[in-house]
Amino acid sequence: MRSPSTAMRECLDASASTFCNCWRLARKDGTIEGFTDHDRDLSFGGVTYRAASGLTATQIEASVGLVVGSGEVVGALQSDGLCECDLAGGLYDGAGVEIWLVDWRDADNRLLLDATTIGEVTRSEFAFRAELRSLAHLFDETRGESFQRGCSADLGDARCKVDLGAASFHTTGVVLALAHLALAHGAIIAGLESEFADEFFTGGSLTFTSGANAGARVTVKSHRRSGENAGIALWSRLAGPVASGDTFAIVAGCDKSAASCERKFSNIVNFRGFPHIPGNDVVMSYPSSLAPSMDGGSFFE
């Protein structure tokens, strides 16, 4: 339960409001940023809350219990602290946000209203809109093992144990041209340092190391050989333009199937799925003299 100080209660009861909103944003990379809807900068707790951010908040809904509260914050992409390339690169995904009610006459007179997490971020030409989720959304995350045919591990993590640092699973490349058939997703024609089979990098990640998108990491939608070069389509639209000569690093993708785990990565011993689990076709089937007997035994013997 929030307990405002005596000074805060007096300000709340006053006929004229001297309050403003401040947002303390903590990104996962350790960067701390502060924003306020007041007309001048405020400082407290070692953070400067910039007034030039153009940030505004919508109504935040909350309720008793484990229902996920929600709200939104809207801002312009015009301040020094907010960059479209950072938003597009996912640097603000999952960032923690503290929402403070502050007396702008005395920043020490303040009240923490809520602690939230940034969810979906959408961008338009000159502004962005970020969803704010209450901490109750953490209870919606999947915990423990799930019984599914596909692998539940992520390629290269502690459960998968594939060493993505091995030369056989990654390479570097340079953009040669844009592929005109799929410009909406930044499809490119690239020269790779090493040759790989079609679809080897599908589902993997591509990180630009130079150019307007340097540092941006995106998921590979498809990878196909095109003569001596490679055609690579990306799932996400990039914040900056892609130009010939931009360099990148690219890492193999995994479709989480047992076949890929065995043939592509030689890692079937660490496969975290259940490829022999009966599917919906078995569940919905009924006894038939033409079908194998259903006596509880294995279908794969």
UniProtKB/TrEMBL annotation:
InterPro entries: Phage_phiJL001_Gp84 (IPR011928), Phage_phiJL001_Gp84_C (IPR018964). Residues 200-281 form the Bacteriophage phiJL001 Gp84 C-terminal domain. It comes from the Bacteria. Pfam families: Phage_BR0599 (PF09356), Phage_phiJL001_Gp84_N (PF09931). Transmembrane segments: none annotated. This is Beta tubulin. It comes from Methylosinus sporium.
